[in-house]
């Protein structure tokens, strides 16, 4: 008969969050294990890497909801409305993630390596780029550089969240739905499929 677990994943994540907020990504899994009252090996039975533990403890999902949904939108529905929907999902995601990362960075805490091709931001950018490439291939968008389009969308949305965090854009001045609608409209002028004669 299997032993019942004495500590939950949530308790491990709480200990990890405390260590990472205090020490940044350099916080050791040994410190986390001691704080949780378990062995270091127990952590790696539940979380395959320190990076996975870090993101889980910060409440950052392995695969954001918008990335999970984007594949199902390829070739379906109104492409402009899909871009508005995806942009809203991305904005909501960064509203959760950016304050945590900004807090760590502002305290001089280290973060996991973000500039590798396997990092979460790179994977998210690839997912949006792939979506746009597939829409271009189906003739639903004008032939453009999909990666540049993806960077423009994600960059604009991240910047909006950043300015919100800095209290530069109160929502009463630039309401988020209006911003997303206008951003997509402006980008749409350069990516709308050519009208057939």
TrEMBL record:
Top-level taxon in the UniProt lineage: Bacteria
Transmembrane segments: none
Gene Ontology MF terms in the entry: DNA-binding transcription factor activity; transcription cis-regulatory region binding
Residue span(s) of domain HTH tetR-type: 6-65
InterPro entries xrefs: DNA-bd_HTH_TetR-type_CS, Homeodomain-like_sf, HTH-type_TetR-like_transc_reg, HTH_TetR, TetR_C_Proteobacteria
Sorted UniProt keywords: DNA-binding, Transcription, Transcription regulation
A family per Pfam: TetR_N
Keyword Magnesium listed: no
Residue ranges: DNA binding: 28-47
Family matches, as PANTHER family: HTH-TYPE TRANSCRIPTIONAL REGULATOR RUTR, MYCOFACTOCIN BIOSYNTHESIS TRANSCRIPTIONAL REGULATOR MFTR-RELATED
Name recorded for this polypeptide: RegN
Species per Swiss-Prot/TrEMBL record: Richelia sinica FACHB-800
């Amino acid at each position: 008969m299997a032993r019942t677990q004495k500590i939950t994943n949530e308790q491990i994540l709480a200990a990890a969050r405390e260590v990472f907020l205090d020490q940044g990504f350099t916080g050791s899994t040994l410190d986390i294990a001691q704080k949780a009252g378990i062995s270091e090996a127990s952590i790696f039975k539940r979380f395959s890497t320190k990076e996975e533990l870090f993101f889980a403890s910060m409440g950052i999902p392995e695969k954001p909801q918008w990335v999970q949904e984007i594949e199902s939108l390829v070739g379906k529905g109104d492409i402009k409305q899909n871009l508005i929907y995806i942009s809203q999902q991305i904005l909501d995601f960064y509203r959760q993630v950016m304050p945590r990362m900004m807090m760590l960075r502002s305290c001089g805490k280290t973060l996991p390596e973000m500039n590798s091709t396997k990092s979460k931001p790179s994977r998210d950018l690839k997912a949006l780029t792939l979506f746009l490439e597939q829409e271009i291939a189906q003739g639903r968008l004008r032939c453009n550089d999909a990666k540049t389009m993806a960077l423009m969308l994600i960059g604009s949305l991240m910047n909006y969240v950043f300015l919100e965090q800095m209290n530069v854009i109160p929502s009463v001045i630039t309401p988020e739905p209006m911003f997303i609608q206008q951003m997509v409209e402006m980008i749409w002028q350069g990516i709308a499929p050519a009208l057939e004669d």
